[in-house]
From TrEMBL:
Species annotation: Actinopolyspora biskrensis
SUPFAM superfamilies to which the protein is assigned, alphabetical: Citrate synthase (SSF48256)
InterPro entries, per the entry: Citrate_synth-like_lrg_a-sub, Citrate_synth-like_sm_a-sub, Citrate_synthase, Citrate_synthase_AS, Citrate_synthase_bac-typ, Citrate_synthase_sf, Citrate_synthase_typ-I
Name of the featured protein: Citrate synthase
Cellular-component GO terms for this entry: cytoplasm
Record has Acyltransferase as a keyword: yes
PROSITE patterns: CITRATE_SYNTHASE
UniProt family annotation: Belongs to the citrate synthase family.
Amino acid sequence: KTGLVTLDPGFVNTAACESDITYIDGEAGILRYRGYPIEELASNSNFVEVSYLLIYGELPTKEQYEDFADRVRRHTLLHEDLRKFFDGFPRDAHPMPVLSSAVSALSTFYQDSLNPFDQQQVELSTHRLLAKLPTIAAYAYKKSVGQPFLYPDNSLGLVENFLRMTFGFPAEPYEVDPTMARALDMLFILHADHEQNCSTSTVRMVGSSEANLFASTSAGINALFGPLHGGANSAVLEMLEGIRAEGGDVDSFVERVKNKEPGVKLMGFGHRVYKNYDPRARIIKKTADEVLEKLGGDDPLLDIALKLEERALSDDYFIERNLYPNVDFYTGLIYKAMGFPTKFFTVLFALGRLPGWIAHWREMMDDPARKISRPRQVYTGYAERPYVPMNER
Ligand code: SDX
Protein backbone atom coordinates (compact mmCIF):
# COMPACT_ATOMS: atom_id res chain seq x y z
CA LYS A 1 0.00 0.00 0.00
CA THR A 2 2.25 2.77 1.21
CA GLY A 3 5.51 0.95 0.46
CA LEU A 4 8.46 0.61 2.85
CA VAL A 5 8.58 2.91 5.90
CA THR A 6 11.90 3.61 7.68
CA LEU A 7 11.84 4.24 11.48
CA ASP A 8 13.85 7.20 12.74
CA PRO A 9 15.97 6.39 15.89
CA GLY A 10 13.84 8.85 17.89
CA PHE A 11 10.79 6.67 17.30
CA VAL A 12 12.52 3.55 18.61
CA ASN A 13 13.78 5.39 21.74
CA THR A 14 10.29 6.53 22.74
CA ALA A 15 9.25 2.88 22.78
CA ALA A 16 11.46 2.13 25.85
CA CYS A 17 10.70 3.39 29.39
CA GLU A 18 13.26 4.06 32.15
CA SER A 19 12.69 2.63 35.62
CA ASP A 20 14.71 1.98 38.82
CA ILE A 21 12.41 -0.72 40.15
CA THR A 22 13.09 -4.11 38.54
CA TYR A 23 15.92 -5.51 36.44
CA ILE A 24 15.47 -8.55 34.17
CA ASP A 25 18.13 -10.25 32.04
CA GLY A 26 16.07 -12.51 29.78
CA GLU A 27 19.06 -14.37 28.34
CA ALA A 28 20.71 -15.08 31.70
CA GLY A 29 17.41 -15.61 33.54
CA ILE A 30 18.08 -12.87 36.13
CA LEU A 31 15.37 -11.01 38.10
CA ARG A 32 16.16 -8.36 40.77
CA TYR A 33 13.87 -6.00 42.71
CA ARG A 34 15.74 -2.73 43.46
CA GLY A 35 19.00 -4.67 42.95
CA TYR A 36 18.18 -7.60 45.26
CA PRO A 37 18.13 -11.05 43.54
CA ILE A 38 14.69 -12.66 43.57
CA GLU A 39 16.21 -15.88 44.97
CA GLU A 40 17.45 -14.05 48.11
CA LEU A 41 14.18 -12.19 48.63
CA ALA A 42 12.14 -15.40 48.22
CA SER A 43 14.28 -17.17 50.84
CA ASN A 44 14.82 -14.38 53.38
CA SER A 45 12.11 -11.73 53.09
CA ASN A 46 8.32 -11.55 53.33
CA PHE A 47 5.65 -10.03 51.10
CA VAL A 48 5.03 -6.91 53.22
CA GLU A 49 8.78 -6.16 53.36
CA VAL A 50 9.15 -6.71 49.59
CA SER A 51 6.15 -4.40 49.04
CA TYR A 52 7.97 -1.72 51.05
CA LEU A 53 11.18 -2.32 49.06
CA LEU A 54 9.45 -2.01 45.67
CA ILE A 55 7.49 1.11 46.65
CA TYR A 56 10.14 3.06 48.61
CA GLY A 57 13.30 1.65 46.99
CA GLU A 58 15.11 0.41 50.12
CA LEU A 59 14.72 -2.46 52.59
CA PRO A 60 13.00 -1.01 55.70
CA THR A 61 14.57 -0.74 59.17
CA LYS A 62 12.64 -2.56 61.92
CA GLU A 63 10.83 0.67 62.87
CA GLN A 64 9.99 1.51 59.24
CA TYR A 65 8.73 -2.04 58.66
CA GLU A 66 6.52 -2.07 61.74
CA ASP A 67 5.11 1.39 60.99
CA PHE A 68 4.35 0.40 57.39
CA ALA A 69 2.75 -2.93 58.36
CA ASP A 70 0.65 -1.15 61.01
CA ARG A 71 -0.55 1.59 58.61
CA VAL A 72 -1.53 -1.02 56.02
CA ARG A 73 -3.27 -3.17 58.66
CA ARG A 74 -5.47 -0.22 59.71
CA HIS A 75 -7.19 -0.13 56.32
CA THR A 76 -8.27 -3.74 55.78
CA LEU A 77 -11.99 -3.00 56.30
CA LEU A 78 -14.17 -2.10 53.31
CA HIS A 79 -16.75 0.68 53.51
CA GLU A 80 -20.06 -1.05 54.36
CA ASP A 81 -21.68 0.35 51.18
CA LEU A 82 -18.84 -1.14 49.12
CA ARG A 83 -19.55 -4.53 50.66
CA LYS A 84 -23.07 -4.20 49.23
CA PHE A 85 -21.60 -4.17 45.69
CA PHE A 86 -21.03 -7.91 46.10
CA ASP A 87 -24.78 -8.50 46.49
CA GLY A 88 -25.22 -7.31 42.91
CA PHE A 89 -22.60 -9.52 41.21
CA PRO A 90 -23.82 -12.86 39.80
CA ARG A 91 -22.57 -15.77 41.92
CA ASP A 92 -20.85 -17.41 38.93
CA ALA A 93 -19.09 -14.19 37.88
CA HIS A 94 -15.36 -14.52 37.15
CA PRO A 95 -13.61 -12.85 40.12
CA MET A 96 -11.28 -10.68 37.98
CA PRO A 97 -14.00 -8.29 36.69
CA VAL A 98 -15.38 -8.27 40.25
CA LEU A 99 -11.93 -7.22 41.49
CA SER A 100 -11.46 -4.49 38.85
CA SER A 101 -14.99 -3.13 39.50
CA ALA A 102 -14.50 -3.00 43.28
CA VAL A 103 -11.03 -1.38 42.93
CA SER A 104 -12.40 1.22 40.54
CA ALA A 105 -15.21 1.89 43.04
CA LEU A 106 -12.59 2.69 45.71
CA SER A 107 -12.23 6.02 43.86
CA THR A 108 -15.84 6.83 44.83
CA PHE A 109 -15.57 5.89 48.53
CA TYR A 110 -12.11 7.26 49.34
CA GLN A 111 -12.17 10.65 47.61
CA ASP A 112 -9.79 12.13 50.21
CA SER A 113 -6.89 10.13 48.73
CA LEU A 114 -7.12 10.63 44.97
CA ASN A 115 -4.77 13.54 44.29
CA PRO A 116 -1.61 12.05 42.67
CA PHE A 117 0.44 15.16 43.53
CA ASP A 118 -0.42 15.36 47.25
CA GLN A 119 2.16 13.10 48.99
CA GLN A 120 -0.09 12.44 51.99
CA GLN A 121 -2.95 11.34 49.74
CA VAL A 122 -0.58 9.12 47.72
CA GLU A 123 0.57 7.44 50.96
CA LEU A 124 -3.04 6.99 52.11
CA SER A 125 -4.19 5.47 48.79
CA THR A 126 -1.09 3.20 48.81
CA HIS A 127 -1.90 1.85 52.28
CA ARG A 128 -5.63 1.56 51.50
CA LEU A 129 -5.08 -0.40 48.30
CA LEU A 130 -2.51 -2.80 49.79
CA ALA A 131 -4.88 -3.46 52.71
CA LYS A 132 -8.20 -3.66 50.85
CA LEU A 133 -7.35 -5.76 47.80
CA PRO A 134 -6.97 -8.96 49.91
CA THR A 135 -10.36 -8.21 51.55
CA ILE A 136 -11.99 -7.61 48.13
CA ALA A 137 -10.45 -10.85 46.81
CA ALA A 138 -11.66 -12.85 49.82
CA TYR A 139 -15.17 -11.39 49.45
CA ALA A 140 -15.22 -12.29 45.74
CA TYR A 141 -14.45 -15.88 46.77
CA LYS A 142 -17.09 -15.94 49.53
CA LYS A 143 -19.69 -14.58 47.07
CA SER A 144 -18.82 -17.36 44.59
CA VAL A 145 -19.37 -20.09 47.21
CA GLY A 146 -22.41 -18.47 48.82
CA GLN A 147 -20.81 -18.20 52.25
CA PRO A 148 -21.00 -15.28 54.73
CA PHE A 149 -18.20 -12.70 54.61
CA LEU A 150 -15.71 -12.52 57.49
CA TYR A 151 -14.48 -9.14 58.69
CA PRO A 152 -10.66 -8.80 58.71
CA ASP A 153 -8.83 -9.72 61.92
CA ASN A 154 -6.02 -7.18 62.29
CA SER A 155 -4.16 -9.28 64.84
CA LEU A 156 -3.07 -11.36 61.81
CA GLY A 157 -0.50 -10.56 59.12
CA LEU A 158 -1.63 -9.59 55.61
CA VAL A 159 -1.41 -13.09 54.08
CA GLU A 160 -2.83 -14.86 57.15
CA ASN A 161 -5.73 -12.36 57.25
CA PHE A 162 -6.48 -13.05 53.58
CA LEU A 163 -6.46 -16.84 54.10
CA ARG A 164 -8.73 -16.56 57.13
CA MET A 165 -11.23 -14.27 55.33
CA THR A 166 -11.19 -16.68 52.35
CA PHE A 167 -11.38 -20.09 54.00
CA GLY A 168 -12.66 -19.27 57.51
CA PHE A 169 -16.30 -19.59 58.69
CA PRO A 170 -18.09 -17.33 61.19
CA ALA A 171 -19.41 -20.39 62.99
CA GLU A 172 -16.08 -21.94 63.91
CA PRO A 173 -12.46 -20.97 64.68
CA TYR A 174 -10.05 -21.06 61.73
CA GLU A 175 -6.37 -21.83 62.21
CA VAL A 176 -4.18 -20.57 59.35
CA ASP A 177 -1.84 -23.37 58.18
CA PRO A 178 1.70 -21.91 58.52
CA THR A 179 2.96 -23.96 55.53
CA MET A 180 0.19 -22.55 53.36
CA ALA A 181 0.77 -18.99 54.61
CA ARG A 182 4.55 -19.18 54.03
CA ALA A 183 4.10 -20.69 50.55
CA LEU A 184 1.53 -18.05 49.54
CA ASP A 185 3.71 -15.26 50.96
CA MET A 186 6.64 -16.54 48.86
CA LEU A 187 4.47 -16.80 45.73
CA PHE A 188 3.31 -13.20 46.25
CA ILE A 189 6.96 -12.13 46.46
CA LEU A 190 7.72 -13.90 43.17
CA HIS A 191 4.78 -12.15 41.45
CA ALA A 192 5.37 -8.72 43.03
CA ASP A 193 6.89 -7.02 39.98
CA HIS A 194 8.21 -7.78 36.53
CA GLU A 195 9.15 -4.43 34.92
CA GLN A 196 7.13 -3.40 31.85
CA ASN A 197 4.82 -6.41 31.47
CA CYS A 198 1.41 -5.94 29.91
CA SER A 199 -0.51 -5.09 33.11
CA THR A 200 2.19 -2.84 34.61
CA SER A 201 2.53 -0.94 31.33
CA THR A 202 -1.26 -0.52 31.43
CA VAL A 203 -1.10 0.95 34.95
CA ARG A 204 1.63 3.38 33.79
CA MET A 205 -0.24 4.26 30.60
CA VAL A 206 -3.53 5.03 32.41
CA GLY A 207 -1.71 6.83 35.25
CA SER A 208 0.17 8.98 32.71
CA SER A 209 -3.11 10.89 32.15
CA GLU A 210 -2.99 11.73 35.92
CA ALA A 211 -5.70 9.13 36.65
CA ASN A 212 -5.67 8.21 40.35
CA LEU A 213 -4.07 5.05 41.76
CA PHE A 214 -7.37 3.13 42.14
CA ALA A 215 -8.46 3.83 38.54
CA SER A 216 -5.01 2.97 37.14
CA THR A 217 -4.84 -0.27 39.16
CA SER A 218 -8.32 -1.30 38.03
CA ALA A 219 -7.08 -1.02 34.42
CA GLY A 220 -4.04 -3.17 35.30
CA ILE A 221 -6.31 -5.85 36.76
CA ASN A 222 -8.25 -5.98 33.50
CA ALA A 223 -5.03 -6.34 31.49
CA LEU A 224 -3.85 -9.15 33.78
CA PHE A 225 -7.14 -11.03 33.20
CA GLY A 226 -6.07 -12.03 29.68
CA PRO A 227 -5.15 -15.75 29.21
CA LEU A 228 -1.80 -14.88 27.59
CA HIS A 229 -0.80 -12.88 30.69
CA GLY A 230 -2.18 -13.41 34.19
CA GLY A 231 -4.86 -15.84 33.05
CA ALA A 232 -2.17 -18.35 32.07
CA ASN A 233 -1.94 -19.94 35.53
CA SER A 234 -5.59 -21.02 35.29
CA ALA A 235 -5.04 -22.07 31.66
CA VAL A 236 -2.14 -24.34 32.74
CA LEU A 237 -4.44 -26.26 35.12
CA GLU A 238 -7.10 -26.55 32.42
CA MET A 239 -4.43 -27.84 30.01
CA LEU A 240 -3.16 -30.45 32.53
CA GLU A 241 -6.71 -31.55 33.35
CA GLY A 242 -7.41 -31.88 29.62
CA ILE A 243 -4.35 -34.13 29.17
CA ARG A 244 -5.41 -36.23 32.15
CA ALA A 245 -8.95 -36.55 30.74
CA GLU A 246 -7.37 -37.91 27.54
CA GLY A 247 -5.54 -40.60 29.53
CA GLY A 248 -2.42 -38.57 30.42
CA ASP A 249 -0.85 -38.94 26.99
CA VAL A 250 1.71 -36.13 27.09
CA ASP A 251 3.33 -37.07 23.77
CA SER A 252 0.16 -36.71 21.70
CA PHE A 253 -0.59 -33.35 23.34
CA VAL A 254 2.90 -32.11 22.49
CA GLU A 255 2.38 -33.21 18.88
CA ARG A 256 -0.85 -31.16 18.76
CA VAL A 257 1.08 -28.12 20.02
CA LYS A 258 3.82 -28.64 17.42
CA ASN A 259 1.18 -28.99 14.70
CA LYS A 260 -0.10 -25.58 15.85
CA GLU A 261 -3.64 -26.87 16.29
CA PRO A 262 -5.81 -23.73 16.75
CA GLY A 263 -6.08 -22.81 20.42
CA VAL A 264 -3.53 -25.44 21.50
CA LYS A 265 -0.48 -23.91 23.19
CA LEU A 266 1.84 -25.19 25.88
CA MET A 267 0.44 -22.85 28.53
CA GLY A 268 2.94 -21.83 31.20
CA PHE A 269 5.72 -22.01 28.61
CA GLY A 270 7.40 -19.17 26.74
CA HIS A 271 8.02 -15.56 27.64
CA ARG A 272 8.43 -12.23 25.86
CA VAL A 273 11.68 -11.57 27.77
CA TYR A 274 13.02 -14.82 29.27
CA LYS A 275 14.59 -16.88 26.51
CA ASN A 276 15.83 -19.16 29.27
CA TYR A 277 14.24 -20.77 32.34
CA ASP A 278 12.15 -18.11 34.20
CA PRO A 279 14.00 -17.80 37.55
CA ARG A 280 10.64 -17.65 39.33
CA ALA A 281 9.58 -20.98 37.81
CA ARG A 282 12.79 -22.55 39.09
CA ILE A 283 12.04 -21.42 42.66
CA ILE A 284 8.39 -22.43 42.47
CA LYS A 285 9.18 -25.88 41.07
CA LYS A 286 11.56 -26.46 43.98
CA THR A 287 8.85 -25.63 46.54
CA ALA A 288 6.00 -27.29 44.63
CA ASP A 289 7.12 -30.77 45.75
CA GLU A 290 7.47 -29.67 49.41
CA VAL A 291 4.19 -27.74 49.47
CA LEU A 292 2.19 -30.38 47.60
CA GLU A 293 3.48 -33.07 49.94
CA LYS A 294 2.36 -31.10 53.01
CA LEU A 295 -0.85 -29.64 51.62
CA GLY A 296 -2.26 -31.75 48.90
CA GLY A 297 -0.66 -35.16 48.81
CA ASP A 298 0.41 -36.56 45.47
CA ASP A 299 -1.41 -34.76 42.68
CA PRO A 300 -1.51 -36.71 39.38
CA LEU A 301 -1.44 -33.36 37.58
CA LEU A 302 2.06 -32.74 39.01
CA ASP A 303 3.27 -35.96 37.40
CA ILE A 304 1.77 -34.84 34.08
CA ALA A 305 3.40 -31.39 34.46
CA LEU A 306 6.80 -32.94 35.18
CA LYS A 307 6.48 -35.27 32.16
CA LEU A 308 5.35 -32.36 29.97
CA GLU A 309 8.30 -30.23 31.06
CA GLU A 310 10.80 -33.05 30.54
CA ARG A 311 9.37 -33.74 27.07
CA ALA A 312 9.36 -30.08 26.00
CA LEU A 313 12.87 -29.35 27.30
CA SER A 314 14.28 -32.16 25.17
CA ASP A 315 12.32 -31.33 21.99
CA ASP A 316 13.96 -29.19 19.29
CA TYR A 317 10.64 -27.51 18.47
CA PHE A 318 10.61 -25.81 21.90
CA ILE A 319 14.37 -25.42 22.22
CA GLU A 320 14.63 -23.60 18.87
CA ARG A 321 11.88 -21.23 19.98
CA ASN A 322 13.41 -20.61 23.42
CA LEU A 323 10.31 -21.97 25.11
CA TYR A 324 10.91 -22.70 28.80
CA PRO A 325 8.56 -22.90 31.81
CA ASN A 326 7.48 -19.46 33.05
CA VAL A 327 6.13 -18.30 36.39
CA ASP A 328 2.71 -19.79 35.65
CA PHE A 329 3.67 -23.38 34.91
CA TYR A 330 3.76 -24.69 38.49
CA THR A 331 1.89 -22.03 40.50
CA GLY A 332 -1.54 -23.39 39.65
CA LEU A 333 -0.72 -26.78 41.17
CA ILE A 334 0.18 -25.13 44.48
CA TYR A 335 -2.91 -22.89 44.46
CA LYS A 336 -5.07 -25.98 43.76
CA ALA A 337 -3.47 -27.81 46.71
CA MET A 338 -4.30 -24.79 48.91
CA GLY A 339 -7.96 -25.15 47.99
CA PHE A 340 -8.43 -22.26 45.54
CA PRO A 341 -10.71 -22.92 42.55
CA THR A 342 -8.95 -22.54 39.18
CA LYS A 343 -10.65 -19.27 38.25
CA PHE A 344 -9.19 -17.64 41.41
CA PHE A 345 -5.58 -18.25 40.41
CA THR A 346 -5.37 -14.95 38.46
CA VAL A 347 -6.77 -13.10 41.49
CA LEU A 348 -3.79 -14.44 43.45
CA PHE A 349 -1.50 -13.15 40.69
CA ALA A 350 -3.11 -9.70 41.08
CA LEU A 351 -2.63 -9.76 44.88
CA GLY A 352 1.06 -10.49 44.36
CA ARG A 353 1.54 -7.93 41.56
CA LEU A 354 -0.13 -5.07 43.42
CA PRO A 355 3.00 -3.55 45.06
CA GLY A 356 4.71 -3.54 41.66
CA TRP A 357 1.82 -1.71 40.05
CA ILE A 358 1.81 0.84 42.90
CA ALA A 359 5.60 1.33 42.69
CA HIS A 360 5.44 1.95 38.93
CA TRP A 361 2.46 4.32 39.19
CA ARG A 362 4.30 6.35 41.87
CA GLU A 363 7.57 6.33 39.93
CA MET A 364 5.81 7.61 36.85
CA MET A 365 3.91 10.29 38.85
CA ASP A 366 7.22 11.48 40.42
CA ASP A 367 8.86 11.78 36.98
CA PRO A 368 9.05 15.50 36.08
CA ALA A 369 9.41 14.54 32.40
CA ARG A 370 6.20 12.55 32.67
CA LYS A 371 3.65 13.41 30.11
CA ILE A 372 0.72 11.49 28.81
CA SER A 373 1.97 8.31 27.15
CA ARG A 374 1.23 8.70 23.48
CA PRO A 375 2.88 5.87 21.49
CA ARG A 376 3.61 6.87 17.88
CA GLN A 377 2.61 4.47 15.07
CA VAL A 378 3.90 3.30 11.69
CA TYR A 379 1.07 4.02 9.23
CA THR A 380 0.62 1.14 6.79
CA GLY A 381 -2.74 2.14 5.30
CA TYR A 382 -3.66 3.71 1.93
CA ALA A 383 -2.02 6.85 0.61
CA GLU A 384 -4.44 9.77 -0.10
CA ARG A 385 -7.31 8.85 -2.44
CA PRO A 386 -10.52 10.68 -3.65
CA TYR A 387 -14.03 9.91 -2.33
CA VAL A 388 -16.11 7.63 -4.64
CA PRO A 389 -19.89 8.24 -4.80
CA MET A 390 -21.89 5.14 -3.82
CA ASN A 391 -23.46 4.67 -7.36
CA GLU A 392 -19.92 4.39 -8.78
CA ARG A 393 -18.55 1.74 -6.34
C1 SDX B 1 3.24 -13.79 32.11
O1 SDX B 1 5.77 -9.90 30.43
C2 SDX B 1 5.81 -10.48 31.55
O2 SDX B 1 6.73 -10.32 32.32
C3 SDX B 1 4.66 -11.37 31.85
C4 SDX B 1 4.78 -12.14 33.16
C5 SDX B 1 4.77 -11.20 34.35
O3 SDX B 1 5.35 -11.57 35.39
O4 SDX B 1 4.10 -10.17 34.25
O5 SDX B 1 6.00 -12.87 33.18
C6 SDX B 1 3.63 -13.10 33.36
O6 SDX B 1 2.40 -13.30 31.41
C7 SDX B 1 3.99 -15.04 31.70
C8 SDX B 1 3.47 -15.63 30.35
C9 SDX B 1 2.19 -16.43 30.64
N1 SDX B 1 1.58 -16.84 29.35
C10 SDX B 1 1.57 -18.12 28.96
O7 SDX B 1 2.15 -19.04 29.54
C11 SDX B 1 0.77 -18.36 27.68
C12 SDX B 1 1.59 -19.23 26.73
N2 SDX B 1 2.77 -18.47 26.27
C13 SDX B 1 2.64 -17.83 24.95
O8 SDX B 1 1.39 -17.18 24.75
C14 SDX B 1 3.87 -16.97 24.61
O9 SDX B 1 4.97 -17.70 24.96
C15 SDX B 1 4.02 -15.57 25.18
C16 SDX B 1 2.96 -14.68 24.68
C17 SDX B 1 4.05 -15.59 26.67
C18 SDX B 1 5.35 -15.03 24.69
O10 SDX B 1 5.38 -15.13 23.32
P1 SDX B 1 6.77 -14.85 22.56
O11 SDX B 1 7.92 -15.31 23.36
O12 SDX B 1 6.77 -13.44 22.12
O13 SDX B 1 6.74 -15.81 21.37
P2 SDX B 1 5.96 -15.52 20.02
O14 SDX B 1 4.50 -15.27 20.35
O15 SDX B 1 6.68 -14.49 19.22
O16 SDX B 1 6.12 -16.95 19.35
C19 SDX B 1 7.42 -17.40 18.92
C20 SDX B 1 7.21 -18.83 18.47
C21 SDX B 1 5.94 -18.99 17.61
O17 SDX B 1 6.14 -20.11 16.77
P3 SDX B 1 6.63 -19.81 15.21
O18 SDX B 1 5.60 -18.84 14.63
O19 SDX B 1 8.02 -19.20 15.32
O20 SDX B 1 6.61 -21.17 14.56
O21 SDX B 1 7.00 -19.67 19.63
C22 SDX B 1 5.71 -20.22 19.56
C23 SDX B 1 4.88 -19.36 18.64
O22 SDX B 1 3.83 -20.11 18.05
N3 SDX B 1 5.19 -20.20 20.93
C24 SDX B 1 4.57 -21.21 21.51
C25 SDX B 1 4.30 -20.81 22.82
N4 SDX B 1 4.77 -19.56 23.00
C26 SDX B 1 5.32 -19.19 21.83
N5 SDX B 1 4.22 -22.44 21.03
C27 SDX B 1 3.58 -23.25 21.90
N6 SDX B 1 3.28 -22.93 23.20
C28 SDX B 1 3.64 -21.73 23.67
N7 SDX B 1 3.35 -21.42 24.94
